[in-house]
Design a protein that fits this description.
By secondary structure, this protein is mainly alpha-helical. Helix content is 67%, strand content 9%.
Length: 206
């Protein structure tokens, strides 16, 4: 039986409510339109019917597939942040008093190193909760861990790298030092200027 064929509309509603209520059969029966007084009995009877059990199984599998798909989308988004890929976001400004949207626009941004590291932390927790058995997820986790090291190195380099405009100043300073020491080497030493006078030279000068 596919797609709940053979079930009444109320029975289908009960199945959907049973999933939505996370297994609360009585509340599911009430929400589906059964009498409050007989909801418990009707729920028990429904859960023992093979066709309803089959439909519940189909709904559960479909829901799990949807959750897995959403989970994969979340992981993909986290991975894009971890690798600092350019993101597209939406922003709007609202006049809360008059409940009017004053402006709205799309914009792009690059995740910061801090955001990338935070994404890696979340990925590590997600993939450590039983999902790391998946070979593809394991590979991606390793890639993320490698990327973490790269980000830490980038952060360290950013701290020790001269700020904008300082590189030129540092270069001029080094050039000045080089010129100074070059001049020092070319300047004649005192002993080169005041040479020793021999006895015969004094008499010749007189």
């Amino acid at each position: 039986m596919a797609n709940g064929q053979g079930l009444t509309a109320k029975q289908k509603a009960f199945c959907h409510e049973y999933i939505a209520q996370r297994g609360n059969a009585r509340q599911a029966a009430i929400n589906a339109g059964y009498s409050v007084k007989t909801a418990h009995v009707q729920a028990h009877e429904n859960l023992n019917k093979p066709n309803i059990q089959e439909y519940l199984r189909e709904l559960t599998e479909a829901r799990m597939g949807d959750l897995m798909s959403r989970g994969d989308q979340v992981i993909e988004q986290l991975m894009s942040f971890a690798f600092r890929k350019r993101q597209t976001a939406y922003s709007k400004r609202t006049d809360l008093v008059n409940d009017i949207v004053e402006s709205e626009h799309m914009y792009e941004f690059d995740p910061s190193i801090e955001e990338a590291n935070k994404s890696l932390d979340i990925l590590a927790r997600i993939m450590g909760l039983g999902r790391s058995e998946n070979a593809d997820l394991k590979r991606r986790l390793i890639e993320a861990q490698v990327r973490r090291v790269e980000l830490e190195n980038e952060a360290l380099e950013a701290k020790i790298r001269p700020k904008e405009g300082q590189e030129e100043q540092v270069g001029h300073f080094i050039d000045s030092l080089g010129e100074y020491y070059d001049d020092e080497e070319e300047e004649p030493r005192p002993q080169d200027v005041h040479q020793e006078t021999k006895p015969g030279d004094e008499e010749s000068q007189e």
